[in-house]
Amino acid sequence: MASLFGFFTSVFYVSAFLVFDWSMWPAAIVGLLFGLSFLPQPYIFARNRSIGMSITALACYAHFTIITWLIGAHAGLHIFNFVVPAVALVVLGPNRILLISFIGLGAVFAFAASQLIFPEAAIPAIRNTPLQTVFMFMATLLTLSLILAVGYVAFALVEKTEMALEAEYARSEALLYNLLPEDIAARLKVEPDRTIADSLPQAAILFADIVDFTPRAASLPAEEVVSFLNKVFRALDELAEKHGLEKIKTIGDAYMVAAGMPNPCGDPVHRGRDGTRHAKDGCRHVGRVS
């Protein structure tokens, strides 16, 4: 997209040169060659961004210096040099800060050299004409617009990256709390290097297994088996939360919970017994529904 913009912008200036005066054909040729240099850039950047950006910067600085020599510094086209470092920052990122610094210094040097060495146009037809003022106005406006556009793209990329990181963090948090009890996961986040080993005076472990699940699963499609297990385990999850039990893990058709851990309680056996009684009723209901 940027390559096409550069190409068509160059074509516009080439047309303006020739429409104004045919004697400006040298500037038109330089502009056309510069526009054509944008076309292979996507392929170069796809192979190596640093090399692609370096070639682009050198081409821009050379072009704007030559074109300033031809039509004069009063036309202001050498102002476009300052767009190059802004583009380099977005394309290369902060990890290539040394290369971006050199590109920025190149832009300052190319601008200063053009301004000081070529104040007057080498082509007499454009000297002291309103076209130079028009070019100066357009160059200033386009340069500011392009720098603002590049800044907008940069901020949009940063925001997109932050949103992706937040989404990844949320997924990691959900996975952590799914694998570990909430209390243990919270302590692990605060002190990741600390060994967690608690002494529990009383605890009860409950292990449930679905009777005749294997022959039933063998006779049903895989989707129905997964759906059935999902209904059973969801019902058990609700009961575990209701009775203050901690889900340990599921293995196939087996379900394991604990009472009195990781947080101790005064009646783990009674909690486990109540949970077991309600679990049987819940599983019978799920079995009838299925």
Question: Care to describe what's here?
Answer:
There is one protein chain. The protein is mostly helical. 69% of the residues lie in helices and 6% in strands. The protein has helices at residues 2-20, 25-36, 41-47, 49-71, 83-92, 97-117, 130-179, 182-190, 213-218, 222-242, 268-289; strands at residues 204-209, 246-251, 254-259. The chain has a three-stranded antiparallel β-sheet with strand order 1-3-2. It is elongated, with a radius of gyration of 35 Å.
Quick rundown:
The protein has 290 residues and is mainly alpha-helical. 69% of the residues lie in helices and 6% in strands.
List keywords for this structure.
single chain; 290 residues; mainly alpha; 3 strands; 6% strand; elongated
Strand order of the largest sheet: 1-3-2
**Overall shape:** elongated
Low-confidence stretches: none
Instruction: Kindly state the number of beta strands.
Output: 3
Biggest beta-sheet profile: 3 strands, antiparallel
Strand content: 5-15%
Helix content: 55-70%
Mean pLDDT: 80
One letter per element, helices H and strands E, the order comes to: HHHHHHHHEHHEEH
Structural class: mainly alpha
Q: For the terminal residues, how far apart are their CA atoms?
A: 56 Å
Work out the helix count: 11
Q: Any idea what the radius of gyration is?
A: 35 Å
